[in-house]
Design a protein that fits this description.
With 290 residues, this protein is an all-alpha fold. The chain has a domain at 9-112 and 149-241. The protein is 72% helix and 0% strand. It has 14 helices and no strands. Helix 1 (9-32) packs across helix 13, helix 2 (37-54) packs across helix 11 (216-239) and helix 4 (69-79) runs antiparallel to helix 9 (157-176).
Length: 290
């Protein structure tokens, strides 16, 4: 399940991943109101890993398991998406959605850092400026309303840590695909390990939320969206540099806002939001034409 690379494949795949991530966010909102965050995350991961194993007879090759890089891909599953998702949710609870989303936009800077230090990539001037534009645009989209300042300073590390770990997972996935050239297999291993972690953590909780409830179907749909998003993201990383892919993935809030406004009818587009969309799209265009 790997698409060919060439031309504008990497930025288009990254944009498709951002779009599917945004869909997952929207469906999660419907499901999480009926259970708690760790249980909702477990259901989503379970749905995603189910999607990957369902198509395994057609796309899984046995020699993949014999490569040392499997351990690296498994390590990704130890923290993404279960730990990163819960860090992000904890940040939202502590800081509120405005400040948490703004701090999470710093993930694009980690994309530059990991790309240079871990992958020996060389970002062009257009990538640097585009990255900064994306970060500023996401901050504009997030900066709405008054901030609640009754939070401890360390709480800022929650959304920043979630973003840093997400981009680290992208860098490790790109390294792993140098010896196992399969975007599908990266998702399969990572999600399988993460699902095991989620089940173990949920089993040790004293009062976990209900698994089967009114929101179950929405969380399953969200998990399917995330599975497809990770597949597109991994293939984008196969085709292009992390320093180019990461800022485009960071444009997910733009797609989420547009879906909320025009599909789910839950958000209004004011002047600040429109400006934020314009800035993010401008940054993403700059990055894609590196």
């Amino acid at each position: 399940m790997d698409l060919s690379c060439g031309g504008a494949a990497a930025p288009l795949l990254a944009a498709a991943a951002a779009f599917m991530f945004a869909n997952g966010v929207q469906f999660t909102r419907y499901g999480v109101v009926h259970t708690d965050s760790p249980t909702a995350t477990m259901i989503q991961i379970g749905a995603a890993v189910g999607c990957y194993w369902l198509v395994a007879p057609w796309f899984l090759q046995s020699w993949f398991w014999l490569q040392p890089a499997v351990l690296l891909l498994a390590a990704i599953g130890l923290f993404r998406p279960f730990i990163t998702g819960n860090l992000a949710m904890a940040g939202t609870r502590r800081l509120g959605p405005t400040l948490a989303s703004t701090m999470a936009s710093t993930s694009v800077l980690f994309g530059l850092l990991y790309g240079v230090l871990l992958l020996d990539e060389t970002p062009t001037g257009m990538v640097v400026w585009g990255t900064l534009l994306v970060m500023c645009g996401v901050a504009l989209l997030s900066a709405r309303g008054r901030l609640n300042r009754s939070w401890p300073l360390w709480a800022l590390l929650l959304p920043v840590g979630a973003g840093a770990l997400r981009v680290l997972a992208q860098a490790l996935a790109k390294i792993g695909m140098e010896s196992i050239p399969s975007a599908y297999f990266v998702g399969l291993v990572g999600y399988s390990v993460s699902f095991a972690v989620a089940v173990l953590v949920n089993a040790r909780r004293r009062d976990p939320g209900p698994v089967r409830g009114p929101g179950f179907k929405w969380l399953v749909i969200a998990g399917g969206c995330y599975a497809l998003a990770i597949l597109c993201l991994n293939q984008a990383l196969r085709c292009g540099d992390l320093v180019m892919v990461s800022p485009i993935i960071a444009s997910t809030p733009v797609f989420s806002l547009l879906l909320g406004r025009f599909v789910f009818r839950e958000a209004e587009m004011d002047g600040r939001a429109a400006l934020g969309v314009l800035v993010v799209v401008s940054g993403a265009v700059l990055v894609s034409f590196q």
